[in-house]
Design a protein that fits this description.
The protein is an alpha+beta fold. It starts with a helix and ends with a helix. It has helices at residues 3-12, 60-80, 128-144, 163-176, 186-193, 196-207, 248-259, 277-291, 297-301, 303-324, 336-365; strands at residues 18-24, 32-40, 43-51, 92-93, 102-103, 109-114, 119-120, 214-216, 225-228, 234-237, 244-246. The longest helix is centred in the C-terminal third of the chain and has 30 residues, at 336-365. 45% of the residues lie in helices and 14% in strands. The structure holds adenosine-5'-diphosphate (ADP), 2-acetamido-2-deoxy-1-O-phosphono-alpha-D-glucopyranose and magnesium ion.
Length: 366
């Protein structure tokens, strides 16, 4: 971050005390995230500062309206449940003008959250209990928003989990091949092409209104949840940029894609990547408990399909981005998106083979 921009932004949020540290923070693929530490007399206070990605979220004002309204809604529910509003949901810090975001002189949009202390976001499951707790929390999150007026939410990214649309965008990227990379990834392209029907499965059920549209998180990977370092409980669901009407099976599926994998999302050694059915089972149990009776029979039946489809969609998105020249997901090395795509397809294949077991596990908890 250039110093002048940083100074301008920090001044606009009127933090108390003296800035001691500003470091890039977390491993999100979308926003630029920093942790700020201020010293005010004896007191030290930390914040999260984010530059929103306006190439991806093209209407940051509407996005912030969503976040403001959703967090206010969650706060009310947390108070009713005698919870801790400063830890159990994101808390926006207003700028000097009382706005929940600041637009700087370069036209960039910034926001600040209270830093949730004594809690960790994990990039891979370290303790099984954490994964189970994250499942309960994502299910519970959906339940807290069950009666939220969905029609007042802006669609922050159009067709975000529309796998049919994702497939069409992928095909276009292959045809255009702007970077001349298609020939070198024929195997991966074929993998997608062979699964056109798969892309339709959940979209068709949604269109036929067999699966209900709910207010969902839509980006339920493990590092979008904070686990309390002391209690081991999931304390807060974060990264609310994509809270929109969606399918509960997709929220389930995206968590499995990321958290039940035995390897990292960008692991190069594919022998290390598979779907761990024990972790999967823990998540099924936790998610069904967290949703507390809200899921319909068909939603439960479709949970394994949600896992396959979210993984397929994500692999397809990584490959599309690779073909288009890596403009969407942040990359940290050459071929990073291709590596990510390969882990996803390895997982899809593995889950396709394990589908009967995955279904049987859901039956156990239905
Ligand atoms: P992205 O959309 O880029 O993934 P996130 O909103 O998920 O951005 O933030 C990136 C990372 O920053 C998170 O994975 C988490 O580690 C950290 N983070 C975000 N918000 C907070 C917060 N309020 N308190 C502590 N850490 C946070
Ligand atoms: C992005 O923002 P982050 O890093 O939590 C992406 C998700 C992908 C994920 C893959 C807005 O999530 O959809 O599943 O990367 N978020 C957006 O790791 O596109
Ligand atoms: Mg994130």
């Amino acid at each position: 971050m250039d110093n002048a921009e940083m100074k301008e932004v920090i001044e606009e949020f009127a933090f108390p005390g003296v800035l001691e540290e500003c470091i890039p923070f977390g491993s999100g693929h979308i926003n630029d995230t920093y942790r700020l530490t201020f010293k005010d007399g004896e007191e030290t206070k930390r914040y999260i500062l984010q530059k929103m990605n306006k190439n991806i979220f093209t209407n940051p004002v509407e996005l912030m309206e969503n976040i403001k309204n959703v967090t206010s809604w969650l706060k009310k529910k947390i108070i009713e449940n005698h919870g801790d509003v400063e830890r159990e949901t994101l808390n926006l810090v207003d700028d000097r003008e009382g706005s929940p975001y600041y637009k700087d002189s370069q036209g960039e949009y910034w926001r600040v959250y209270l830093f949730i202390e004594n809690a960790t976001c994990y990039d891979q499951v370290e303790s099984e209990q954490d994964f189970y707790q994250s499942a309960v929390a994502f299910g519970h999150f959906q339940r807290l928003l069950a009666d939220y007026p969905a029609d007042t939410l802006h669609e922050t990214i159009k067709d975000f989990h529309n796998t049919v649309d994702r497939f069409a965008k992928f095909k276009k990227a292959v045809e255009e091949d702007v970077c001349g990379r298609a020939a070198s990834v024929k195997e991966e392209i074929d993998f997608v092409m062979e699964r056109e029907n798969l892309a339709h499965t959940l979209c068709d059920l949604q269109e036929q209104k067999k699966l209900p549209l709910r207010v969902t998180h839509n980006d339920t990977k493990l590092n979008n949840i904070m686990i309390d370092d002391t209690t081991g409980k999931a304390v807060c669901v974060i990264d609310l940029d994509t809270v929109m009407p969606g399918l509960s099976v997709n929220d389930f599926g995206d968590s499995i894609r990321f958290g039940a994998s035995t390897g990292a999302e960008d692991e190069r050694d594919l022998t290390k990547v598979s779907c761990d059915l024990h972790l999967y089972e823990l998540y099924v149990k936790g998610f069904i408990e967290g949703c507390a009776g809200a899921l319909t029979d068909l939603e439960m039946d479709m949970l394994p399909m949600g896992a396959i489809l979210m993984t397929f969609e994500c692999g397809m998105r990584f490959l599309t981005d690779y073909l288009e020249g890596d403009h969407y997901f942040k990359i940290h090395r050459e071929g990073h998106n291709l590596d990510r795509c390969r882990t996803q397809f390895k997982l899809v294949k593995d889950m396709e083979e394990k589908l009967p077991q995955m279904k049987a596990i859901v039956e156990k908890y239905k």
